[in-house]
Specification:
The complex is a heterodimer of chains A (106) and B (395).
Chain A: E1 35-39, H1 49-53, E2 59-62, E3 65-69, H2 79-83, E4 89-93
Antiparallel strand pairs in A: 1-4, 2-3
Chain B: E1 6-10, H1 11-22, E2 26-29, H2 36-47, E3 54-57, H3 61-74, E4 78-79, H4 84-89, H5 91-99, E5 105-110, H6 124-128, E6 135-138, H7 142-157, E7 165-170, E8 178-182, H8 186-193, H9 220-249, E9 256-259, E10 266-269, H10 273-287, E11 292-297, E12 299-301, H11 305-312, E13 317-322, H12 333-345, E14 350-356, H13 365-381, E15 388-391
Parallel strand pairs in B: 2-3, 2-4, 5-7, 6-7, 10-11, 10-13, 13-14, 14-15
Antiparallel strand pairs in B: 1-8, 6-12, 9-11
Helix pairs in contact in B: 1-2, 1-7, 3-5, 7-9, 10-13, 11-12
Classes of the chains: A mainly beta (106), B alpha/beta (395).
């Protein structure tokens, strides 16, 4: 049974059970963010301090280097921007990235 | 048909005996009047090693139902029992048991909810829980309580249902009164209920899963819709189980019982022990040539609205009795639901609501004769008077 956002009541497990272990990753929790971290790749030294501090595991690292930010789960808390020693991360208003209907524009 | 195994016994002890025969994996219960001797007698079975049940002596009813939810989610066949304020204290978890689709069976020995504090029978406790998502079955006598508890296991555990079931019987009147009860043999009960196969047991470590996660506006509504469907679908299962039960016991159960109703002109609708008194009154009035009858609802959730309205449709007048009030509503809960069902059915005999017996105020044969008399007057004069009446209260 594959559950997605638009699944009807006949197509989801009964009783609110989560029968697929480890599927919380599929549940997007970043929608209510008001500001988002934007990383400047030119300034970033890949020290990974942001990766250590991020409470939502939203700094995506590959081969020891920061590749991206997971905006589906980032809540916009701004800890990464505060902790970055080279000011490579800037918090920007979410309205710059969304239309009036709230859809992503990036 | 099996041989008769007749025993003189209280309703509570009959219920405890049913639970002994069911032999659940876990029973978590807290004693409360008038359910107390049920739990006490069952705890003796546990102490004497006559059951394999893990008996959890919790510190409150909130904990009792919480332990039941945990044990049922783990994969056990689970039971508890309560009354009135105990049911009220476990209320939060009562809803959770139903929404998690855990087939827990719970006798509820009907008692008035506080306050003022009172230990005697009315139906305010289970009626307050009527929207909790549990199947509700009401019992007239100790025999019916015993029979309904055994059937409840098979209904709750049916894969099309998988919902918890409350089995009600009247506090003190049935719970403490001694009646003759015909017990089934242990082997017959065991074969009838069969082995329990849990649907999603937490103890199945091969298939890890989560019970009770946060469920917000994006899925909660869909889960509630599922509950509505599952309890609706329990109706044919309840009837199937009743048919199977007749085969082992010879005793017939339906969604409700009609007593001399088919050719009746007026009738009373009453739950539980009051229906027993009403049957004696019906017999007496029939001897006088009066065409009176009785309808005793058995299954209140799911509410068999179409069947009930059809069974009452030929009457000239009906008195619907409620042993609880729904303060501020247009009558008691049984009345509002049956009246609504009659409107939908399209044939509505003249009807009155008798709210009676709160806090154990007795209702006797003369009282019921008076109510049939009132129905006779309504038919004769065409005048209803007060539609909602508090019968037996001092003005």
């Amino acid at each position: 049974m594959t559950v997605h956002k638009k699944s009807g009541w006949k197509d989801i497990p009964k009783g609110g059970l989560i029968v697929e272990p480890g599927n919380s990753e599929k549940y997007e929790t970043g929608s209510w963010r008001s500001t988002r971290p934007v990383r400047d790749d030119n300034k970033c030294t890949h020290c990974l301090i942001c990766w250590v501090y991020c409470p939502d595991s939203s700094i995506i690292v590959e081969d020891g280097k920061i590749k991206d930010i997971d905006y589906d789960h980032c809540k916009g808390c701004g800890i990464c921007a505060v902790e970055c020693p080279v000011n490579a991360i800037t918090m920007k208003n979410e309205s710059e990235f969304r239309t009036e209907k709230g859809e992503k524009n990036d | 048909m099996t041989k008769k195994n007749l025993v003189a016994i209280t309703g509570n002890d009959a219920a405890a005996y049913a639970i002994k025969q069911i032999n659940p994996d876990v029973m978590a219960a807290y004693p409360i009047t008038p359910q107390t001797d049920l739990v006490q007698t069952f705890s003796e079975y546990v102490a004497d090693g006559l059951v394999n049940t893990e008996f959890v002596t919790v510190e409150s009813e909130h904990s009792a139902m919480s332990a039941c939810v945990g044990a049922a989610a783990a994969g056990g066949r689970v039971m508890t029992a309560t009354s009135a304020n105990g049911l009220a204290l476990m209320f939060e978890i009562v809803y959770i048991a139903a929404s998690n689709k855990l087939p827990i069976v719970m006798p509820v020995v009907n008692r008035a909810l506080s306050g003022p504090i009172n230990i005697h029978c009315d139906h305010s406790d289970s009626m307050a829980a009527r929207d909790a998502g549990w199947i509700q079955i009401y019992s007239e006598s100790a025999q019916e309580a015993y029979d309904n508890i055994i059937q409840a296991i098979k209904i709750a555990e049916n894969m099309k249902v998988r919902l918890p079931v409350m089995v009600m019987y009247d506090g003190f009147i049935t719970s403490h009164g001694i009646e003759v009860v015909d017990f089934l043999d242990d082997k017959v009960v065991n074969e009838f209920i069969g082995d329990y196969k849990p649907n999603h047991p937490l103890l199945d470590t091969e298939k890890p899963l989560t019970y009770g996660p946060l469920d917000l506006y994006d899925f909660y509504f869909e889960h509630k819709r599922q509950q509505a469907e599952d309890i609706k679908n329990s109706k044919p299962v309840i009837l199937d189980v009743a048919r199977e039960f007749k085969n082992i016991s010879g005793r017939e159960y339906k969604l409700f019982e009609s007593y001399k109703l088919e050719d009746a002109e007026t009738a009373i609708v009453a739950l539980s022990s009051t229906a027993g008194t009403a049957k004696a009154v019906v017999d007496e009035l029939r001897d006088e040539g009066k065409k009176v009858g009785l309808l005793k609802p058995r299954v209140f959730r799911p509410f068999p609205y179409n069947e009930l309205a059809e069974a009452l449709s030929h009457l000239k007048a009906v008195a619907i009795l409620d042993r609880s009030d729904s303060f501020g509503a247009f009558g008691g809960p049984v009345f509002t639901e049956i009246r609504s069902a009659m409107v939908e059915y399209g044939k509505m005999p003249e009807n009155i609501n008798i709210i009676y017996g709160l806090g154990g105020r007795d209702i006797n044969q003369q009282d019921l004769k008076n109510i049939y008399g009132q129905l006779g007057e309504i038919v004769e004069t065409g005048k209803v008077g007060d539609r909602i009446q508090y019968y037996g209260v001092r003005e």
